[in-house]
Amino acid sequence: MAKKLRVGVIGVGGIAHTHLPGWKASEHAEVVAGSDVVPDALKQWGEAQGVTQLATDPQELFDDPDIDIIDVCTPNNYHAPLSIAALNAGKHVICEKPLAPSPALVRDMIAARDGSGKLLMTAQHFRFESHSKAMKEEIDEGALGDIYHARSWMLRRGGAPTGAGFIQKRHSGGGPCIDIGVHILDLTLWFMGNPQPRTVTGVARAGLAHLPGAFTGWGRAAIPEEFDVEDFASAFVRFDNGATLVIEVSWLLHHDTMGEDMQMWLYGTKAGSHWPKLEVYEANNDTRQYYNRSLKLRPSTIEAHAQECVEFAQAIVNGAPSPVPPEESLQVMQILDGIYQSQESGREFVIE
Ligand SMILES: NC(=O)c1ccc[n+]([C@@H]2O[C@H](COP(=O)([O-])OP(=O)(O)OC[C@H]3O[C@@H](n4cnc5c(N)ncnc54)[C@H](O)[C@@H]3O)[C@@H](O)[C@H]2O)c1
Questions:
Q1: Nearest residue to 197 via CA among 180, 212, 185
Q2: For the CA atoms of the chain, what is the radius of gyration?
Q3: Whose CA is nearest to atom 25 of ligand 1?
Q4: pLDDT tens, 68-89?
Q5: pLDDT tens-digit series, residues 183-226
Q6: Residue 65 carries which DSSP code?
């Protein structure tokens, strides 16, 4: 059997733990090294995972010719510099979402990818869930016809994080747009066939986070004063192919359900659909009847955060394209950046 690809993980916090089962399940890759700016956290992680090559300076991983893949799991604002350094050192890179908090930085990452000839993938795990795969297959077979409109939202009644990596712009680049907007937007654009966004009219505001006594449902903790990002955003987007999208995202709003309300409605010339209900809605113009049908779900044996790592290693070995190409993450960031720009100007933002 060929030598396994050797993986170095940078940022050994919460999300890195969800990748590890994927690297363990992969027949093509294994984790051999880790890096983090917090030495104690790194040491603990190394002991728990049986990984002995540990470095607080990620350059040590980049300089190691035996490391093939860098898995970037740090807060958002470190994704671009770390990924670019890794690509320049000749490593394949899988990087957590958002790839970078601005379109300009995503372009820099694409340029580094082009210069290196290696693969760069955004860890958009929702694409690797069984529900998403079933819906994508149905759409790719043409079941919806031309998709001309989408309605998507990802709303949390009381789901604001409190860590600096999420709520301080200098670490995160933004609030729920950047944190969870990337999930529902990436999935929606992927289902729509990644049309190029052209204009964005949006708002991004903190309606609840700064009210006296504001708290998050997670541990009923107070919202820290340093919260300087939006807690709600909404937008209307036009695409080059004439399609449109309405999107809403929030970490905090007076909604009916606790937890996460994540939904997507797609409207096409042949049918409409709902994700994650996996339903398709059609009409027969000859019989003047309406039909609803449910899609079959093939349950996965592995969690989506792990499956994305398995498929990344597989793509490298097969010489296949990146399972989530950065060009598609650029479209996501163009829309999110457009929301912030439109909020700032009070006008529609045109993506150049
Ligand atoms: N796909 C998902 O569902 C999902 C869920 C949560 C978080 N994320 C993403 O994962 C990333 C990390 O989030 P998390 O929840 O794991 O955060 P976390 O705070 O739990 O972990 C981040 C780790 O990175 C380390 N770190 C910080 N700056 C660093 C640097 N410059 N170099 C090396 N290490 C550094 C921290 O010490 C910490 O151990 C974020 O980009 C976030 O958007 C994705």
A1: 185
A2: 21
A3: 11
A4: 999 999 999 999 999 999 999 9
A5: 999 999 999 999 999 999 999 999 999 999 999 999 999 999 99
A6: T
Residue-wise over 164-183: b if at least 16 C-beta within 10 A, else e?
Answer: ebbbbbebbbbbbbbbbbbb
Q: Is 329 helix (H, G, I), strand (E, B) or coil?
A: helix
Cα(165) to ligand 1 centroid in Å equals 7
Give the separation between CA 63 and CA 86, rounded to whole angstroms: 9
**Which CATH number does 129-301+332-350 carry?**
3.30.360.10
Q: Do 37 and 56 form a contact (C-beta atoms < 8 A)? A: yes
Task: Report CA(75)–ligand 1 centroid distance (Å).
Answer: 4
The domain ranges of the chain are 5-126+303-324, 129-301+332-350
Q: Rounded to the nearest whole angstrom, what is the distance from the C-alpha of residue 271 to the centroid of ligand 1?
A: 39
Conformation bin of residue 242: beta by default, left when phi > 0, alpha when psi is -120 to 50 = left
Q: Which two tokens stand for residue 132?
A: 């998403």
